[in-house]
Fold this protein.
Amino acid sequence: MRYFADRAEPVHFSRSRAYKKNDNAHVEQKSWTHVRQLFGYDRINKANLVPAMNEIYLIWSLYQNHFSPVRKLV
């Protein structure tokens, strides 16, 4: 981060790859499995819930990334 911050021209980070305009669909797919399944589609406007949600999401993401299969068994 320090390398990119010290450059004369700012570097903009993106979740998608260069020349891959359909990458956003893959990000949204992960939103379904990681965020929407856990918290639902409703908008949560209570700031006091953010620390608890972050803690729950941290545990959930560790489970999803390390112990949940990502491919179907043949």
In short: The chain has a mean pLDDT of 77. Residues 23-39 form the longest helix (17 residues).
